[in-house]
Structure to design on (228 residues):
């Protein structure tokens, strides 16, 4: 059974950093595109970043480019999102997802990131 | 900036049928946009319903159908159940440089 479990969220001051992790089970992250989607309180869904199977392509939304970095650890079957220079507008629930050929089929429960002084 | 547009809210009676749509600011939506549909209930993570226009996941009830309609992606719910009350999001693929874009979501009320 497929499971995605996010961790690493919390309260951080503006300008601070956080590292989110997504532990996968029931499949190998090396076989899928993996990504992060966020949802600000009371708002819709927004793609943040994704990484292809061979890591040849990494996409980052303009809103996070240069501040967020996605990475994959095939040995530990996990994906991470390193976030720097956090802003109030980065406050959101961050979901880890997997995508196989234009099929985003699995979501984690999400981890809440709050950026506030 | 590419915009994907959905109806903000729709109301349907139990047992009824409703169609939600998903339009692109770039023009007609085709199968090359690989439409995905998601359902989100309050306090829960989104759940995938439909991928690549019309394919159901193994857990997607048969009353949910995805297709293309009049240049838009569409999601029809037939025989609506009270538990279908939720927010529904579509997502379209645009390739580089902004691969996936979500619609703003449709709040479906079953009343």
């Amino acid at each position: 059974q497929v499971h995605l479990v996010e961790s690493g969220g919390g309260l951080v001051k503006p300008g601070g950093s956080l590292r989110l992790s997504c532990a996968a089970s029931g499949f190998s992250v090396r076989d899928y595109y993996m990504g992060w989607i966020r949802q600000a309180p009371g708002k819709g869904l927004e793609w943040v970043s994704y990484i292809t199977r061979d890591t040849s392509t990494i996409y980052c939304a303009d809103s996070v480019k240069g501040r967020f970095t996605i990475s994959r650890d095939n040995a530990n079957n996990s994906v991470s999102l390193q976030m720097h220079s956090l802003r109030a507008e980065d406050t959101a629930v961050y979901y880890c997802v997997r995508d196989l050929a234009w099929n985003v089929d699995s979501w984690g429960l999400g981890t809440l990131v709050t950026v506030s002084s | 900036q590419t915009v994907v547009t959905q109806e903000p809210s729709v109301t349907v009676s139990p047992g009824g049928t409703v169609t939600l749509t998903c339009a692109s600011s770039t023009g007609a939506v085709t199968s090359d946009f690989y439409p995905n549909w998601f359902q989100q209930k309050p306090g829960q993570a989104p759940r995938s319903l439909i991928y690549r226009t019309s394919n159901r996941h193994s857990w997607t009830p048969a009353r949910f159908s995805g297709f293309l309609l009049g240049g838009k992606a569409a999601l029809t719910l037939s025989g609506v159940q009270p538990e279908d009350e939720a927010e529904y999001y579509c997502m379209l693929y645009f390739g580089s440089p902004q691969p996936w874009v979500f619609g703003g979501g449709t709040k479906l009320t079953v009343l």
